[in-house]
């Protein structure tokens, strides 16, 4: 059921050795590129990284980016710095969600990583072979999920209930 | 096929008079709230607006926000201003994409609208009954699509081909 598929996407941070094929990468990028964006600007470019040395270098560029080093392939999301940052990052989130949902539909695991702070964003951008105005703030790990580890995840799981999230707008008179 | 469903989401800006039911709104919000976010912070709140007067006021708060006035219901996406703007907007894009894909799976049309510039973001936030640190930069129209209009859309359609979007990372020696 489609709602369950979309709702059921969870981050995968530990991957098996089974490689993700080129056709699968192409398939998820095909879905990513059809995401909507403000004015249909599509302010994104995709850098596909498989090199283990490069993945290790990227994996230290954010506090929670370690999973990049164990991925079969990482898609770096470059955003256009000439577009307002709010639009560009919102749109990048849309494309990233399309990408990860497509991966999920294909049985792959995924997880986004943020590069932070700004010096690390510049480093990731350079490692991707890009320069201003392109900015690489996010990398998305892809791979087949490994069996779950023991112990508690570092990041709390679950979600706030709808009752906490839905706010009634002010009542209007008349 | 799931990839086709995800890929096939398009913006709907013109809606019929058929109202979107409460259960459908709940269903799409249920999917939105399960989107991932940096550190699982879920830096979002949802304000559900049906009041026609309020929708008209919101619809003038962005150059491309006119469709809000014709929607059956609008979900205003409030983001947490205490979270870095890059993270908050990226995460909001993820939640918005989940919401719109869920709507699409239910046969509903949707379209996001950005409030801009900053004075209009403040106005939208106030109309939503919220205040800092919450910031309402995006509203998502929901409704049943009306039959397509004549003429060309204001925003160019289609998408850049993958060959334009995929960049090879630099080759590594050794």
Secondary-structure blueprint:
The structure is a homodimer of 174-residue chains.
Chain A: H1 2-7, H2 22-33, E1 44-49, H3 52-59, E2 73-80, H4 85-105, E3 109-114, H5 118-127, E4 134-143, H6 162-165, E5 166-167
Helix pairs in contact in A: 2-4
Low-confidence stretches of chain A: none
Distance between the termini of chain A: 42 Å
Largest interface, by Cβ-Cβ below 8 angstroms: which chains and how many residues each? A-B, 74 and 74 residues
SSE arrangement of chain A, N to C? HHEHEHEHEHE
Oligomer: homodimer
Structural class of chain A comes to alpha+beta
**Secondary structure: helix percent of chain A:** 25-40%
Instruction: Sum up the overall morphology of chain A in one term.
Output: globular
Strand arrangement, major sheet of chain A: 1-2-4-3
What fraction strand of chain A?
A: 15-25%
Largest sheet, strands/sense/barrel of chain A: 4 strands, antiparallel
Number of helices of chain A: 6
Per DSSP E runs of 2 or more residues, the count of β-strands of chain A stands at 5
Overall pLDDT score of chain A? 94
C-alpha Rg of chain A, in Å? 17 Å
């Amino acid at each position: 059921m489609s709602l369950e598929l979309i709702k059921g996407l969870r981050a995968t941070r530990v991957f098996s050795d089974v490689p993700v094929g080129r056709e699968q990468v192409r398939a998820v990028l095909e879905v990513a590129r059809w995401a909507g964006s403000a004015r249909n600007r599509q302010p994104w470019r995709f850098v596909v990284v498989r090199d283990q040395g490069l993945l290790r270098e990227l994996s230290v560029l954010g506090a929670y980016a370690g999973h990049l080093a164990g991925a079969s392939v990482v898609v770096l999301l470059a955003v256009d710095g000439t577009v307002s940052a709010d639009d560009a990052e919102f749109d990048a989130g849309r494309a990233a969600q399309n990408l990860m949902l497509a991966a999920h539909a294909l049985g792959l695991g995924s997880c986004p990583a943020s590069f932070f702070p700004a010096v690390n964003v510049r480093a990731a951008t350079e490692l991707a072979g890009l320069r201003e105005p392109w900015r690489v703030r996010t990398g998305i790990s892809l791979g087949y999920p490994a069996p779950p580890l023991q112990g508690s995840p570092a990041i709390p799981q679950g979600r706030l209930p709808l009752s906490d999230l839905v706010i009634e707008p002010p009542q209007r008179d008349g």
